[in-house]
Amino acid sequence: MQTATQSRPDIFRISGSEAEWHVERNGETSIPYATKEAAFEAAVAAASNAIRNGHEVVIVVPGVRRGESLLGGEDTDETPWSSLT
Fold first, then answer.
1. How many whole angstroms separate alpha carbon 78 and alpha carbon 56?
2. CB-CB contact of 72 with 15 (8 Å)
3. What single DSSP character describes residue 33?
4. Count of alpha carbons within 13 Å of 13, Cβ hemisphere only?
5. What dihedral angle (degrees, nearest 10) is formed by the CA atoms of 8, 71, 75, 42?
6. pLDDT in 10s for each residue of the chain, 85 residues
7. Rounded alpha-carbon distances, angstroms, from residue 38 to 24, 28, 72, 85
8. Which of 3, 54, 61, 69 is spaced 20 to 30 A from 80 at the CA atom?
9. Could you tell me whether strands 28-29 and 57-60 are parallel, antiparallel, or unpaired per DSSP bridges?
10. How far is 53 from 63, CA to CA, in rounded Å?
11. In 10-26, which positions are buried (b, 16+ CB within 10 angstroms) versus exposed (e)?
């Protein structure tokens, strides 16, 4: 069993806006992601590796902002699948 050697947690923060989301980890920014959800999935994968290395992990995801789609992607004005029944 490994023991943690780090005193501060690894903080994964999702930031950005429509179609340009990033994962910031301890001050370093990742490549852009098309949606907030995609950035979150990347953060979770990286956080999983950090946990395996014995690190404490924090993931911060902002809520939806006014005028933004729920998942933070571009609004395509297409008909939603749920209305096609």
1. 41
2. no
3. B
4. 10
5. 50
6. 555 455 789 999 999 988 899 999 988 999 999 999 999 999 999 999 999 999 999 999 998 877 777 666 665 555 555 555 5
7. 13, 18, 9, 28
8. 61
9. unpaired
10. 29
11. bebbbebebeebbbbbe
Which residue type does 77 have? D
Q: Can you tell me which residue has the tokens 């749920």?
A: 82
Tokens of 81: 């699948």
Residue with tokens 């005028």: 67
Residue type present at position 42: A
The pair of structure tokens assigned to 29 is: 């920014």
SS (H, E, C) 34-77: CCHHHHHHHHHHHHHHHHHCCCCEEEECCCCCCCCCCCCCCCCC
- 78, two tokens: 């297409």
3-state secondary structure of 21: strand
Sign of CA dihedral 46, 24, 76, 66: positive
